[in-house]
Amino acid sequence: MRCLYREHRFICGEYMEVEHYPVFEVKRTGRAPKRKPSSETQKRHNDIAAKRKIIRLAHANFTPDDIRFDLTYNESNYPESAEAAQKQMQNFLRRLRRYRRRHDLTELKYIGVTEVGKTNKRFHHHILLNCGDMKPRDLADLWGRGYTKIAPLQFNDTGIVDLAKYMIKDPILGKRWLASRNIKPPKEIIRDGRISAKKIREFAISAADNREALEKLYKGYRLSEITPYHNDVNGAFYVSIFMRKDERRKR
């Protein structure tokens, strides 16, 4: 069995994620029996994949000029079901799109989720919007069904990872989020064998001591976070790296 390490880059605006993981080439003498993962294992995998995807989409499409918009309901407008709540959010986004067209603003871009509060069990929505050019009063009037909260997106060395994870924590209806068609996926670059298993092990065991090596490997970026994982089954190391463009180099 031959093993190479794969480098999978996701370039997302000012940020970049890099996944390093082993790719095994196995010579088979016969067909191996198929094994399905348990439902719990598959659910955990799906949750992790969904969080990573929305984090990458958020960083690839939004900037500090954009906003987070939270929407709630008053009693007279409270929806009867999760499906009705989802439809109310979609209707609001249609009204918002028409408003921006009438006022010659840039095309609406959004990622939104519908949730049920853990404490009060009430439907509410969280939406990322490219509407930093609009007045809060106008956005609230377009919603018109309850309280709203608006905040500018605040990016740090790990971007808006915490906000993206918060948004996706407890979605309803199975579909985790809605996104406008103009949401762009991150640029992906995949290379096999660029980095040796020995070097990956060094990165995993002592990330702090290898900061300089990692930043030299990915010129123009500063290391924000590194997450190593050791698989006890195959004995391999897996490394996830999160980086931000180095503004010092620009200056």
Characterise this structure:
The protein is an alpha+beta fold. It has seven helices and ten strands. It has a domain of 113 residues: Alpha-Beta Plaits, CATH 3.30.70. It has a five-stranded antiparallel β-sheet with strand order 8-1-2-10-9. Strands 6-3-5-4-7 form a five-stranded antiparallel β-sheet, covered by helices on one side. The longest helix is centred in the first third of the chain and has 23 residues. The mean pLDDT is 87.
Give the biggest sheet: 5 strands, antiparallel
- Percent range for β-strand residues: 25-35%
Which assembly state applies to the chains in this document? single chain
Radius of gyration (Å): 22 Å
Q: What structural category do the secondary elements indicate?
A: alpha+beta
Which shape, going by the Cα principal axes?
Answer: elongated
Give the CA-CA distance, first to last residue: 48 Å
Query: Helical content, roughly?
Result: 25-40%
Succession of helices and strands = EEHEHEEHEHEEHHEEH
**Side-by-side strand order of the widest sheet:** 8-1-2-10-9
List low-pLDDT spans: none
Q: Could you say what the CATH architecture of the domain at 67-179 is? A: 2-Layer Sandwich
Mean pLDDT: 87
What's the number of extended β-strand segments?
10
- Number of DSSP helical runs: 7
Keywords summarizing the entry:
elongated, 251 residues, alpha+beta, Alpha-Beta Plaits, five-stranded antiparallel β-sheet, single chain
Secondary structure topology:
Layout (H helix, E strand, L loop, with lengths): L1 E11 L2 E11 L13 H23 L5 E5 L10 H21 L7 E7 L6 E7 L6 H8 L4 E5 L8 H7 L10 E2 L7 E6 L4 H9 L5 H7 L3 E10 L6 E9 L1 H4 L1
Antiparallel strand pairs: 1-2, 1-8, 2-10, 3-5, 3-6, 4-5, 4-7, 9-10
